[in-house]
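Bit of a strange request maybe. I'm writing a small parser for structure token strings and I need a real example to test against, not something I typed by hand. Could someone generate the tokens for this chain?
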Amino acid sequence: MLNSTVLVLNRSFLPIHVTSVRRAFSMIYQDVARPVDEHYETFDFESWQRLEVNGSDRLGTSRGALRVPRVIVLRSYDRVPRRNVRYSRINVFVRDDYTCQYCGSRPPRSHLNLDHIVPRSLGGRTTWENVVCSCVECNRRKGGRTPEQARLRLRRRPTRPRWTPVLHLVSTVRYKEWRPFLVAGAPVE
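Reply from user aminoacidic:
Good idea to test on real output. This should exercise your parser:
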């Protein structure tokens, strides 16, 4: 339970991050953040402790059950999330929807690789526009060649994503409490 996720909002109630329940409780206790309930009310640690725990996720403490917050709002952070998406393996997988960009298969994540369209051995760089998600078999078949040389065709040209990092969570809204702060109508897992 302590490692499950909590949505973090800035002072304007815009989503900026996801953290663990452990970290969220630490932030609430230090009065850096306040938990937000289903009625958009905020609470300090003492008043959150006194809330009833009926049917919600809870954590056992020496003083009794404590309701697990699913959304917290920072008390003094006004900034809006960066618009540039950080280049990372997971963000390439998200951009490509965990789908091989050569054959279109969706193997388990452990069977996915990142592939340089123009191989590094031929001067290709590690950029959003030159790296795609590929299955192990297509990556092996392509080897150190370009897709044309390997007689493979890209399903679509890779581009730098325009979404903000937190917003990729929309496709996997983990808790109903997150929905109002993300995109309306997003399915709950």
